[in-house]
Amino acid sequence: AQKVTQAQTEISVVEKEDVTLDCVYETRDTTYYLFWYKQPPSGELVFLIRRNSFDEQNEISGRYSWNFQKSTSSFNFTITASQVVDSAVYFCALSEGPSGGSYIPTFGRGTSLIVHP
Amino acid sequence: DSGVTQTPKHLITATGQRVTLRCSPRSGDLSVYWYQQSLDQGLQFLIQYYNGEERAKGNILERFSAQQFPDLHSELNLSSLELGDSALYFCASSPYRLGTATNEKLFFGSGTQLSVL
To answer: Which of A26, A91, A115, B5 is placed for a possible disulfide with A3 were both Cys, Cβ 3.0 to 4.6 Å?
Structure first.
């Protein structure tokens, strides 16, 4: 069974600080996908990144970067020079499969990031 | 704007009642997912439909049911409501195509906040 653990319930930082959100996953599949989604105060979840299990390249997109390490089953997310607009709940998700022809993402409990001005 | 439309945004009802939540997926998406988000359980997968057919079932109660219509919109029916059913219900759609090996990201609606009093 797939499982995602986001041990950090809430992180509070001051603007311009760097912050890393941790995500640890469990799966028995060799083929799987990992995702990060952002849920701002408005409530709608927004996709940030997708990574498949065969692609361990780290990725950088502006102030966002992701570190995927299969050896430690982790897919961590770093925001550099955080801004108030980064305040949101961030979810890590894992999708094995397909199961019965479908990929069903399992989400972690989320990490609430609060960036103070 | 994700392109996924959910109505209503808010719903207040009493225990024992029945409600229907509606979702219109992004244009061209055949796959619809329903998730329940609560403080207790986090983001829980309920059910998935693909082109009108049920494809996967998660932690959906027997009092809950869903369907996807020929125009691809979906409805989630919640009956005999209990206080514990109060939650934010999300619909998401995906460009995923059956038989492909690619796990597509989900596009989420803004959710329906259900309050059972």
So the answer is: A26
Q: Which residues of chain B lie closer than 8 angstroms to A97, CB-CB?
A: 103
* Cβ <8 Å between B103 and A95: yes
> Nearest 5°: CA angle at A29, between A26 and A32?
80
Q: Cβ A104–B45 below 8 Å, yes or no?
A: yes
With tokens 């600080």, the residue in question is A17
Tokens at A80, concatenated: 């550099």
Residue with tokens 């979810």: A91
Contact between residue B30 and residue B50 where contact means Cβ atoms under 8 Å apart: yes
Q: What is the pLDDT of residues B49-69, one digit of tens each?
A: 999 999 999 989 999 999 999
In chain B, count H helices and then E strands. 0, 11
DSSP state of A85: G
